[in-house]
Amino acid sequence: MTTPLILDGKSLAKQVEESLKIRVQKFKDTHNGNVPTLATILVGSDPASATYVKMKGNACARVGMQSLKIEMPQSTTTKELLSKIHELNIDASVNGILLQHPVPSQIDERAAFDAIDLKKDVDGVTCLGFGRMSMGETAHGSATPAGIMAIIGHYNIELEGKHAVVIGRSPILGKPVAMMLLNKNATVTICHSRTRGLPELVKQADIVIAAVGKPEFVQGSWIKEGAVIIDAGYHPGNIGDVNLKDDVTHCSAYTPVPGGVGPMTIATLIRQTMDSAEAICIESRF
Fold it and tell me: What is the rounded CA–CA span in Å between residue 239 and residue 257?
């Protein structure tokens, strides 16, 4: 039996960062020393969210971009958050805006996401961005799904005519990755934790996208011979949504956890910030 291919998102993310260093330097040279800027908004003091924001800031620093870190108290209201987002929308020095999920329960998260200017929605969280992406129009894709598609593309995994089963329906992961796969001519089935007969559906899949948010939910026995496994989950103990301790040697390829989808999510976020900076500058010339 052939050993499954490990889809190494960590090494691919490093390649993306190396190419970004060149683009950032070129931008700096042609814009009076200015560099692309990603504004990150953290509401409250959730330790995991703070860690994710720090990781994104570190990634910006590695490629020479600027990270503008905005911290708001746990008591922040929707109105206050919307005011801050508006301030960043009109700030010409800011090229991308990231609102770290989740926000405190008193905030209307959807209203806050949708307040982000489409041009600066580098995390792909707005309804308008999702709609445009679904229709094949220009928009920044949700960072994790777009990172998944980059991994699939890098490893030349064929999508056209293949059956992809997406387990998860979140607005920033399951739903957008399903649309991205559909746009690449895959046949897509969207499932979730309450889907009846889920193991049987997964067994039909050529490509399994595990994005259900439950540790080791997907079992190796569900995976058919030769399928590709993309594990978009991450949980304490360095485990994902797929039980990789179960026998998955019959799959053709899989993303490890950690080192698979996670690094490419961050790399995609900063790449799309770079894209935004270049697009905004081109647009301002006309």
Answer: 6
